[in-house]
Amino acid sequence: MSDIDPGLYVRAREAAEILGIAPSTMRQWARKGRIRYLRNPHTGWRIYRAGDVYALRDTHQEAQR
User: Fold this and answer.
1) Tens digits of residue pLDDT in 5-51
2) What is the pLDDT of residue 62?
3) Alpha-carbon span 47 to 6, nearest angstrom
4) Of 15, 42, 53, 59, which is the most buried if we count CB atoms within 10 A?
5) How many helices (H) and strands (E) does the chain have?
6) Domains plus CATH for the chain?
């Protein structure tokens, strides 16, 4: 896991901003399995694949229409 390219992953706060939701909602969605995450090996914080975040954003926006 230490070979993760940091450019491909975002932290919970950044992911929440992209999705237009609160960071606590982001963590809830992760716990419920709505989006996959990894743990940063150095900090233990959740990190999300940027592609997954943007795909969820697109799905979330379409559902709101």
Assistant:
1) 657 899 999 999 999 999 999 999 999 999 999 998 899 999 999 99
2) 75
3) 9
4) 15
5) 3, 3
6) 8-64 (1.10.1660.10)
